[in-house]
TrEMBL record:
Pfam family, one: Inositol_P
Domain of life where this protein originates: Bacteria
Lineage of producing organism: Bacteria, Bacillati, Bacillota, Bacilli, Bacillales
CDD domains: IMPase_like (cd01637)
Protein name as annotated: Inositol monophosphatase
Coiled-coil stretches: none
Cleaved signal peptide residues: none
Species this protein is from: Staphylococcus auricularis
Length: 263
């Protein structure tokens, strides 16, 4: 795929994102919340409508492209071949419902398994982060710089303490500068990408939670691996860390020490 085609798709997708500035407030005004697998597993009309809206955009402009997304069945998708979009229409749904802030849209475009375009839209703050293969990463068109190298002792770490064993949590607290969790895999990852956090760990993400992070990481020199320091399969998801390169190995060593990180 040549650069111009990629730039043209980027223009079209950014124009789709700009339509959300009208649709999201309207959807929030009439927000309806349902539960999925348990009372903490939430979905709203906002999640469903944004995804349907993007599905219609693809059908209209790029009918041969596939969509792998959270609020649909993905059984027919062959994610490794052709043009594939991976979407989390709202990442941080609990934050949207309970706090009306700290949520984002995650969108990534893969061609034959290679990440080509990535977006994380921090709607409450009006910031569209994007990465273009070979062209770097941007926040509302301002280039992002690779973060400074950070040792674990100077780093804020982000992880879900509910799913790690207590010894591991304590060791991470002791080794790091501090701990913060936003509650949106996309926005926690973005803090790492911007050099605010040292690392973000999620032990159970789905493809849509982490689809965009691959390209931001490769364009800005961050590490993104499984917790065994292997490449992450974008179509499967699974335990992952996105990290400043200065503390990646230090965090993995703590996670894998003793009986491991699982509760
Ligand atoms: P939350 O506020 O519901 O979600 C925090 C972030 O994790 C969001 O990006 C969310 O994506 C994603 N997420 C939601 N369910 C997840 C799951 N089962 N595994 C991995 N990521 C998930 O999180 P919470 O209130 O802290 O926890 C809600 C449930 O999710 C709990 O059962 C928790 O243990 C689990 N969880 C596990 C991890 C992990 O590292 N294994 C991380 C977060 C949450 P959406 O907003 O798109 O759902
Ligand atoms: Ca998510
Ligand atoms: Ca979601």
């Amino acid at each position: 795929m040549d650069k111009q085609q990629l730039f043209d798709i980027d223009v079209a997708v950014r124009s789709w994102f700009s339509t959300l500035n009208v649709t999201i407030p309207r959807l929030i005004e009439h927000m309806e919340t349902d539960t999925k697998q348990n009372r903490f597993d939430l979905v709203t009309n906002v999640d469903r409508d944004i995804q349907q809206n993007f599905e219609q955009f693809l059908q209209h402009f790029y009918p041969s492209h596939q969509l792998l997304a959270e609020e649909k069945s993905n059984q027919q998708i062959d994610a490794y071949h052709g043009h594939v979009w991976v979407m989390d229409p709202i990442d941080g749904t609990m934050n949207l419902v309970k706090q009306q802030t700290d949520y984002c849209v995650i969108l990534a475009y893969f061609v034959d398994s290679e990440p080509m375009l990535s977006y994380i839209y921090d709607y409450p703050n009006g910031i569209l982060y994007k990465a273009i293969k070979g062209e770097g990463a941007y926040a509302n068109d301002q280039p992002l710089k690779p973060p400074h190298t950070m040792d674990i002792k100077d780093a804020i770490l982000s992880f879900n303490a509910q799913v790690l064993n207590l010894e591991t949590v304590k060791a991470l607290f002791d080794a790091s500068f501090s701990y913060r969790i936003i509650g949106s895999c996309g926005l926690d990852s973005m803090r790492v990408i911007k050099g605010q956090f040292g690392a973000h760990v999620n032990t159970n993400p789905k493809p849509w939670d982490i689809g965009a992070q691959f390209l931001f990481a490769s364009e800005l020199g961050l590490k993104m691996t499984t917790l065994d320091n292997e490449p992450v399969d974008f179509a499967k998801g699974g335990p992952f860390i996105i990290s400043n390169k200065g503390c990646h190995q230090q965090v993995l060593d703590i996670l894998n020490d003793g009986d491991g990180y699982q509760k």
